[in-house]
Amino acid sequence: MSPHAQPPHDLIATLERIRAGRGSTAAELDRALEAADSPVCAPAFLKTFRDQALQQAADPARQALPLGGLPVSVKDLFDLAGQPTPAGSRVLADAPAAQRDAPAVARLKAAGATVLGRTHMTEFAFSGVGTNPHFRTPANPADAATPRIPGGSSSGAAVSVAGGAAFIGLGSDTGGSIRIPAALCGIVGFKNTQRLTPLEGALPLSATLDTVCAMTRSVRDAILAHEILAGRQVVRSTAPLRAYRLAVPCTQMLDGLDATVAAAFERALDRLRSAGATVQEIELDAIRDLGSIQATGGFSAAESFAWHRSLLEARGDGYDPRVRARIERGAGMKAHEYLELIRARRDWIARVEASLRGFDAVLSPTVPIVAPPIAQVAPGDASRDEAFFRVNALLLRNPSVVNMLDGCAISIPCHGAGELPVGLMIWQSAMRDDTVLNVAQQAETALASITRP
C-alpha cells in the first residue's frame, strides 16, 4: 500500500474518479439520495433537501470547487437560512427561521458542497449516547443484526457518513460529540482547537467547550474539511512514524476497557511501534482532578442552564427528561463557583501541557466500550435510565479530557474485520492540530492492513 492510500469511497478519491471521467457528480448524488432513503440512513435525517440538492449538484461552477458538488449533511443545531434551528427538540420546532446560514455551513457551500439534509442529534447536544425520545434513534450501521447506539450527540451526522449518504457530516463537539459517534460507527472524527472554527449560527451547549467540526471517511478528507471550516491551510508533513514521540496516559483513560476495545488498542499500539513510532506509557495524574474541578456541575451544565432558563420555565415539559435533568444541574452553580471553575481549568491546562512536553501527540482509546444495543438505554423504566447515564459517563470520559484541555483530537478506526468499531484517539493541547492530523494520516496508513484487510 502506498503512503496515505485511502479507501476508494472517500471524498478525495471520488473527486479524482469524477475528474478523470470515470464517474459523475449526478451519479454520486443519486447514490447518496438512495442511501439517505434506505432503512439504515433514513432515521439519520430529520429533513432532506432532495430537489435543492439535485439543483445544486448539477451546477458546473459548484462541481469545479474543492468539494465538487458532493453531498454533505448538517447537524440540526446549525442555522440554515429560511429554516428554524430546532437542535433536535420539539420546543424549538416553531422557532423563527434563521436569517442566514451559519458560517460553517456557508463555508462548505462556498467550497462546492451540496447540503443533503439536517441530521438527527441528541436534544440540545447534551449526551454522548445519541438517543432522542422525540425522533427514532438511527441504528449504528456497523451491526445489521442488533440495533446499536450510534453515539452522540452528532448521531445522524455519523450515520449519514458511515451509511453512504454524505461524505462530510458537519457537527459539534463539546465533550466528544464528534469523536464518540465516529469511534462507534467506524469512521473518522476530528475535533480541532475550538478557536479555529466559527461558533456563530450553532445553537450553544457550552460556549467554553463547544467546537464546530466534522466527520469523514478518511483522514485526508478530515484535513480537507477542516481547511474549509477553519479557512486555513494545514501544514502537511510526510515525516514517517519513526519521527514521532507518542504518549499513552495510563491514568483512568485505560480503565474498564471492554475486551474488544482493549485488544484493538493494544494491536494498534503494536502496529505503530512496528512502524517505528516511539510509544511511551506515562502517568497523567492531573486527569484524576477533573472530578473535583467539575464537582459543582461543570461548564456544560452552568452555561446551558443560562441559555435555557427562560425556555425551561415556559416549555420545560417538552424537553427530553434526561436532558432537562442535566441542564437543570447548572441552576445551583453560584457565581464564585463558576469563576473558580474558570481559574481551576486554566491551572489544570498548564499542568497537563507541562506533562505532555516533549511528546508530539497522545494516544488513547476514544471510548472504552463498543456500541451497546439501543434497547439497553432507550427511554423506559428506571433501570434503563441508570444504564443510560452509566453508558453516557463511559463514552464521555476519555474525549472530554481534550475539551477541558482546549485541545485537538482525532478518532480513527483501529478495529479489525468482523469486529465492532473501535476508535483510536490521537490528541494534543491547543493549536497542535497540524501535528495531530499528520500523525493520524501516518497512523491510518500503518493500521490499514488491520482495518481494511
TrEMBL record:
Alphabetized InterPro entries for the sequence: Amidase, Amidase_CS, Amidase_dom, AS_sf
Membrane-crossing segments per the record: none
Pfam families (UniProt xref): Amidase (PF01425)
Domain Amidase intervals: 44-437
GO MF term list: catalytic activity
PROSITE patterns: AMIDASES
Gene3D superfamilies: Amidase signature (AS) domain
UniProt protein name: Amidase-like protein
Species annotation: Ramlibacter tataouinensis (strain ATCC BAA-407 / DSM 14655 / LMG 21543 / TTB310)
